[in-house]
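Thymic stromal cotransporter
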Amino acid sequence: MALGSLGSSEDRRSLRLILLDLILGLAGFCGSMASGHLFKQMTGHHSGQGLVLTACSVSCATFALVYSLLVLKVPESTASPRTALPAVDTVTGTIGTYRTLDPDQSDKQGVEGYPPSPGKAVPKKTVIALLFVGAVIYDLAVVGTVDVMPLFVLREPLRWNQVQVGYGMAAGYTIFITSFLGVLLFSRCFRDTTMIVIGMVSFGSGALLLAFVKKTYMFYIARAVMLFALIPVTTIRSAMSKLIKDSSYGKVFVILQLSLALTGVVTSTVYNKIYQLTMEKFVGTCFALSSFLSFLAIIPIGIVAYKQASWLQYGDIAEK
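Structure:
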């Protein structure tokens, strides 16, 4: 993600990062489609069950490591110089223009007729912190759902076999494709915060539907509602990259990823415990909780959007 940010301009960064996720999704889709069949082929040979899948995984991971060490290079940043005039985005239906999420640009341009007001300036660290909080809460919802889903589909009322599980996972990876198309479309007319909220609403609604799934077709309907679920975290990364210097991309993304990883460990433990306690009473409890968390994550993003609205009026953000 850091290399992708360095190699893209600000106005195309969200699209570049979601494109990287799209490649991940396509690879995951192919792997998921094949995994159930490969595992089923080894069912008759108990001693070697899963050996083919393990060998494939290790081989791919080894190739990725070698490729990263020997082939990948740090690209030269394509970001505009700090002394250059800032890029200005125009929103249909909005009088005047607003600046992108880049507080380091020297020009303090605001809406015509509204001069900058230092008292209304917003520290960029506050905005980054709010984006972090939104990403972590949303990741709680996503990780919890993803971890519980394999257990959910194996039990009543669905009771899927190996091949059906592979197809179900593949359906999940189509979200990478639909999210990419979503960013491709929405980035032309919406701000980053708006795209993030769209993705959170998409996932929250789908998770709520999952809580009441009784048939296989209902499961796929719920997954279809989640078609923009990948947009939030990717777009949050893009928004953060517009608030920091090029040399800090790697550090900030590593901190964010570590935060998400630690959150994921805790979430997996808690959600599995909740699932064990509630599977006989209401099997969809975890999905309902994920839906709540997804909508809760909108709050910090909404605050950032409100601050952006103040930039419309005052055209400034503090350099702190």
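Residues 2-75+121-314 form a domain with the Growth Hormone; Chain: A; fold (CATH 1.20.1250.20).
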